Amino acid sequence: MINKAPIGVFDSGVGGLTVVKEIMNQIPGETIIYFGDTARLPYGSKSKETVITYTRQIVRFLMNREVKAIVIACNTASALALETVKSEIDMPVIGVVKPGAKVAANTTRNGKIGVIGTEATIRSGIYSEILSKSNPKVNVFGKACPLFVPLVEEGLVDDPITFEMVRRYTGELIEKQIDTLVLGCTHYPLLRKTIRKVVGEDITLVNPAYETAKCLAEVLTDNDIRNDDTPKLNHRFYVSDGAEKFRQFANTILPCEVMETKDINIEELG
Question: 18, 187, 189, 211: which could form a disulfide with 99 (CB 3.0–4.6 Å)?
Fold first, then answer.
């Protein structure tokens, strides 16, 4: 039965685990197949054509494992490749941009919203586009934070250098008097505590990972493919490099223990 089929989730690295965590918490009956493209990260500095190519390869990999829906748990791939992939396959595919943007548009009090993300995400302007459609009165201020992903991938979440980079990147957004800040990369919720220390308590932090899991639950229900049984879950995790390092990191984030992570050469799969 398709209801018992797994959900495919992918990201450029460990950041997508923030989405996986929310899915596990909010839709505990679903089995997850995760792919982290750790050999080719970060996506944020890549061209649109390259990101689309990578996304197609990973989607094909997940479809070969008979998933019933796919979550692009990467803001860059969501911004640059989501619409292309949705037009090419016949199953629900959701990204992480729209769910977070819609919440930010409804949350802001003064209409000034900051968005931090990768260079490609900010350059695409997709958050500004969606936020403006949701609330035409908002002013959106984007800031690329290219060092955040490498810092998270290296496990330097609480390091003084990370605190300094957060201070530098968010400084001009704070000067704009934003009252809402979208964490526009799935790696960034892992820096939430540090970001909170820097921006203070008056700025609302929007975590698209949480909102994406809510959106996924609605999509599964609307398509009548949600699994409401209590199955023996068999989550599977794959990466394109550094399986053991990924597994150790995953076990500091997820509510279940990751027993094994497999290395896959995604380019050899076509």
Answer: 211
